[in-house]
Design brief:
The complex is a heterodimer. By secondary structure, chain A is mainly β. Chain A has no helices and 11 strands. Chain A has strands at about 5, 10, 20-25, 30-40, 45-50, 60, 70-75, 80-85, 90-100, 110-115, 115-120. Chain A is globular. The model of chain A has no long low-confidence stretch (mean pLDDT about 95). Chain B is mostly beta strands. Chain B is built from no helices and 9 strands. Chain B starts with 8 loop residues before the first strand and ends with a strand. The relative contact order of chain B is 0.34. Classes of the chains: A mainly beta, B mainly beta. At the A-B interface, strand 5 and strand 10 of A face strand 3, strand 7 and strand 8 of B.
Chain lengths: ~120, ~110
């Protein structure tokens, strides 16, 4: 059974940093691209970042480019999102999501989602 | 780049069919065949319903179907059931800049 468990969320002041983690199990992690998608309370979905299966390719939404860094450790089956220079508008539930297709490239189709980790940005 | 445009809400009676539209531009929906749809039941995580405009992942009911014409994609739900009441989101590849955009979401009410 595919499982994705996020952690690392919490309360941070504007301008602060936070590192989110996602522990994956139940599938061959190193063979799938991965994504981070966020959802502000009561709002819609926003794709944040994605990484290829090997980790060699990364993509970002314009809203986070230059502030967030996605990475992965295929030996530990872990996905990460390093967030810096956080803004009030970054507050959201952050989901880790597995890419649908087997292989290196990002398809941005998310077939399995974690339960999310909540990031609150406030002074 | 702006989010894709969806109606805020749609409604239908059990057994009926409804269609949710998702309007983008010639730079996203109109440019690529990479449109997907997600269902988010209340308090739950999103579920992938449709990918590549009209393909269903294994296990998704055939009552859900997708299509695209020009800059507008559509999700049709036939034989509406009470358990279909949820928020529905479209997404599309968008090329340069933010590579994938979501719609604002549509709340489906089953009357």
């Amino acid at each position: 059974e595919v499982q994705l468990v996020e952690s690392g969320g919490g309360l941070v002041q504007p301008g602060g940093s936070l590192r989110l983690s996602c522990a994956a199990s139940g599938f061959n992690f190193g063979n799938y691209a991965m994504n981070w998608v966020r959802q502000a309370p009561g709002k819609g979905l926003e794709w944040v970042s994605g990484i290829s299966a090997s980790g060699g390719g990364t993509r970002y939404a314009d809203s986070v480019k230059g502030r967030f860094t996605i990475s992965r450790d295929n030996f530990k089956n872990m996905l990460y999102l390093q967030m810096s220079t956080l803004r009030v508008e970054d507050a959201a539930l952050y989901y880790c999501a597995k890419d649908l297709h087997f292989g290196q490239q990002l398809s941005y189709y998310c077939d399995y989602w974690g339960q999310g980790t909540l990031v609150t940005v406030s002074s | 780049q702006s989010a894709l445009t969806q109606p805020a809400s749609v409604s239908g009676s059990p057994g009926q069919s409804i269609t949710i539209s998702c309007t983008g531009t010639s730079s996203d929906v109109g440019a690529y065949g990479y449109v997907s749809w997600y269902q988010q039941l209340p308090g739950k995580v999103p579920k992938l319903l449709i990918y590549d405009v009209s393909n269903r992942p294994s296990g998704v009911s055939i009552r859900f179907s997708g299509s695209k014409s020009g800059n507008t994609a559509s999700l049709t739900i036939s034989g509406l059931q009470a358990e279909d009441e949820a928020d529905y989101y479209c997404s599309s590849d968008a090329g340069s800049g933010t590579p994938v955009l979501f719609g604002g979401g549509t709340k489906l009410t089953v009357l």
